[in-house]
Design a protein that fits this description.
The protein is 66% helix and 4% strand. It is mainly α and 565 residues long.
């Protein structure tokens, strides 16, 4: 096209440009979707679809078909010509063309493209009816190709054919079980466990359609044992990794469970998994860097120093603003675009013992709802760093300064809970003791008292303002909504703000955050974790909620909305 344009051959340039447009999309090869999909998208973000082809374009396509010798291009144009004109001769020739392409690709030992061509031939033939000669031709081509693959032990080619045969119900599925099993074992003998598993997965689909539970369970057990051996081999050699082995072994156990394997065998492998994950945790190398927080620490102390009790309390509860959610979202988007892997690859989040605490799926191909959940999960993870800095550089120095100067007693702190609309009267004493413990650095006591009371207070506030904090189950019983569900209610967001609900979720109940409430309730925290950043931040958020909702007989007059630099 460019060459013709450069020498002024405008008619030839127009023909090549037209062909270029026609080749900018390809058959979709996906049942139940559009017939074609774009091969690429232009710089303007647009692409041509066959629906835009008019009658004049169809005449030009017919003209080109008569003058083309290359089978692949001619077949594609026949496919497009049928789509634009619905002429039966075009679809007949297109089906023959795709079968011819399949034969050519097989001669080139390219079973992947060969099967894609057969799939398109079947897609075109199906509307004509399963009793039509066109469908019979396409079906016969597929069955012939499958037999050739089987005779030559072309494992991947036969697996693809078997998938097509199952999809279009061309033979009884039971007939596929024996050859698929044989080829899967053949691949395993070649130490190609991934291919063997893929073939067994097709065999499982066939067994389910055939109602053969015994074969299905056997296939799952076989996949499981293959993965067990693969996991063991992954530990060996200089590049061995117990972390990778643990991931494989976990999949093995899941497959064995689906295959109804012996419980003793599964329990045995769970012990091996614990060993792999423990050793894998040791493979993780910590990443750290130093940040000088001397100046913000001094500024935070100075912000409290010398102030009367009431004003110092308000300054402590407002020492930092809550998370700027739009800025955090933009920060996560910029970070993922720069790194790339969060968009396209699944990420496993491990705990200190090497166990898989969370799975984050790449969100580039997710639907809008799941994509938003994935983005929110990344936002919680990203926010943890800022929350740590907030505690270490601002909250903790300010708390220490406040306690040094005022040494708050239970009696002195009573107004915080007595006059706060956030605190239900029947819970005031417990929350008071938790706040008092936090002021004096007893984080274990503060956490165990405050965390449950936070949920109780939020439930109380939502109820007072007309929100429904219960749910009705299918059996008619009624129960309280979970803490997470409470924080997602519109009433909660209206009362406390998006930022506070986001922080409480990330701190207390989200797996991608600290999940502090659940870990605390189930005794999953050791002594060091019980006095760490989440404990201090929980206390501070509870204090902030109490102070922000105070209605004292006399309010401080000095403006306290300014935070330290």
């Amino acid at each position: 096209m460019r060459e013709a344009a450069s020498v002024g051959r405008l008619p030839q340039e127009a023909v090549y440009r037209f062909l270029h447009a026609l080749c900018s999309f390809q058959p979709a090869y996906k049942p139940g979707t559009e017939s074609f999909e774009p091969l690429y998208i232009g710089e303007n973000g647009e692409t041509l679809f066959p629906e835009a082809i008019g009658q004049d374009d169809a005449k030009a396509i017919a003209y080109l078909i008569k003058r083309l010798d290359r089978l692949e291009l001619k077949t594609r144009l026949l496919d497009l010509h049928w789509l634009a004109t619905k002429e039966r001769t075009s679809i007949d020739q297109a089906v023959d063309g795709y079968i011819g392409i399949s034969d050519l690709q097989n001669e080139a030992d390219n079973s992947f493209d060969a099967n894609r061509a057969l799939k398109r031939a079947l897609q075109l033939a199906i509307p004509r009816g399963r009793k039509s000669a066109l469908y019979t031709t396409a079906r016969s081509a597929l069955m012939r190709t499958a037999k050739e693959y089987l005779d030559t032990d072309n494992v991947f080619g036969y697996k693809q054919c078997a998938d097509l045969i199952l999809e279009h119900r061309l033979t009884p599925p039971a007939e596929l079980l024996e050859p698929l099993e044989r080829l899967a074992e053949l691949e395993w003998e070649k130490k190609k466990g991934i291919y063997a598993e893929a073939v067994y997965q097709t065999a499982i689909s066939a067994a389910r359609r055939a109602g053969n539970l015994e074969f299905e369970h056997m296939a799952f057990r076989r996949i499981g044992e293959m993965k067990v051996m693969t996991a063991a081999m992954r530990c060996e050699g200089p590049s061995g990794s117990y972390m990778a082995a643990g991931m494989i072994l976990k999949e093995a156990i899941q497959a064995l469970q689906k295959g109804r394997a012996d419980h003793k065998r599964i329990d045995e492998l769970k012990g091996v998994l614990t060993d792999y994950q423990t050793r894998g945790g040791a493979e993780l190398k910590p990443y750290s860097f130093e940040i000088d927080i001397e100046e913000p620490v001094k500024a935070s102390r100075d912000w409290i120093k010398g102030q009367p009790f009431g004003l110092a309390l308000r300054r402590l509860s407002g020492i930092r603003k809550l998370t700027d959610l739009p800025a955090l979202r933009q920060q996560v988007q910029d970070s993922t675009e720069k790194k790339g892997w969060d968009q396209f690859f699944t990420t496993l989040v491990l705990d200190a013992n090497g166990r898989h605490r969370q799975i984050r799926h790449g969100y580039s191909d997710l639907n809008p709802e799941d994509k938003e959940k994935a983005m929110e999960s990344l936002m919680f993870s990203e926010a943890l760093f800022e929350w740590k800095m907030r505690v270490q550089a601002f909250i903790e120095p300010a708390r220490a300064q406040f306690t040094d100067e005022h040494n708050p007693s239970l009696q002195l702190l009573i107004p915080i809970v007595l006059y706060s609309n956030f605190v239900p009267e029947s819970h005031a004493n417990t929350l008071l003791r938790g706040l008092h413990a936090g002021f004096h650095g007893d984080w274990v006591l503060a956490s165990y008292l405050i965390v449950p009371q936070l949920e109780a207070s939020i439930r109380h506030c939502i109820t007072v303002h007309g929100g429904d904090v219960t749910s009705i189950k299918e059996d008619g019983t009624q129960q309280n909504k979970t803490f997470r569900d409470l924080l997602l209610l519109p009433e909660a967001i209206k009362l406390f703000g998006n930022e506070m609900c986001f922080e409480l979720r990330g701190l207390l109940v989200e797996e991608s955050g600290w999940n502090y409430r659940n870990r605390l309730a189930h005794g999953m925290l050791d002594d060091a974790q019980n006095i760490g950043v989440p404990a201090i931040l929980t206390w501070w958020l509870a204090l902030k909620l109490c102070v922000d909702n105070l209605e004292l007989p006399q309010q401080p007059t000095e403006n306290s909305d300014i935070e330290p630099e």
